[in-house]
Amino acid sequence: MIRVLLPWQLSSLTLPTTLEKIHVEFYVDQKEYERKLMEDFWDIIYGPFDERQRSAVFVSNVESFLIAIKYVEIRSKFDECKRTSDILDKHIELQGVKIVETLKTLKKLQIQKPDCFVIVAENGIQVEAYVDYFSNSCYQQVAEKLYKVILDGKKVDIITSSSPIENLINVSIPPLRERKEDIPYMVDKALSWIHQKHKNITVVFPDQHVMRLLTSYNWPGNTEELVRVIYRYASGEDIISCLKDSITVDDIKSMSMREYVSEIVAQVEKQLIQDALQKTSWNRKKAAAMLGLNYKTLSYKIKKYGIKRTKP
């Protein structure tokens, strides 16, 4: 909403059509001008400059007033984009391309402003990220599964539930197993956060084999489980150990075992080659003999896994 303070003489002025609503108040004399000046925060003020309203645009004629409306509308749109960008950057849950469709649905609801709607999500999905996105970070949690939002003066209730509720608008959040293409983006964001917060931790980003392991797993605990595993991985734990502690019999039944086992074997093989090279000071002949491989096979696997000598 664009808030405007005008002199009474301009009460008959036709305002331009804008995407945002324009709220106008008038003053009849200098005394009322001084009073209303401090009653609210204004976007545009037709009158003499006052440093107490530094963020407002002060104008002195109709032409500059009409230009100011366009300027404030563009500035408001930019501020909205900046807020949205900051919210997206803040949440691991909102990273990726698959989740964009869900975010588009929430954007449509921002325009519709229903009295109430339901966010349907499994355990482990960071539901508050979607509330934050919908509300532009302006919300209040009033109960365990109830949030209050005010958008342009309209109150909207958001209920979170593990299943749809009849006779209400339901927005279903896809579980991580249905948005595996988003996992690399989420892992990248999680690791970036960890490295920013813990400067003493060596920066390690997963190679293609680790990433395949992460995307092969079905993540029954969704984003919360992913974040826990990535924290352990960033602290130096082997990714196989991290996932081994998470996998259950039910998970194994639902996974492509051939692909999953193949990736585990590749990851183990890579680790063994790295260990052998380090123990032999990168003498490939000695490393090959230690591993029971011929020199050519070892060289091929070093290239295949992208193994590079690290500086001591």
Automatic annotation (TrEMBL):
Entry keyword set: ATP-binding, Nucleotide-binding, Transcription, Transcription regulation
Domain of life: Bacteria
Sequence ranges assigned to domain Sigma-54 factor interaction in this UniProt record: 167-235
Xref: InterPro entries: AAA_lid_NorR (IPR058031), Homeodomain-like_sf (IPR009057), HTH_Fis (IPR002197), P-loop_NTPase (IPR027417), Sigma_54_int (IPR002078)
Annotated Pfam families: AAA_lid_14 (PF25601), HTH_8 (PF02954)
Molecular function terms, GO-annotated: ATP binding; sequence-specific DNA binding
One GO term (biological process): regulation of DNA-templated transcription
Transmembrane segments: none
PANTHER family: C4-DICARBOXYLATE TRANSPORT TRANSCRIPTIONAL REGULATORY PROTEIN DCTD, TRANSCRIPTIONAL REGULATORY PROTEIN
Protein's recorded name: Sigma54 specific transcriptional regulator, Fis family
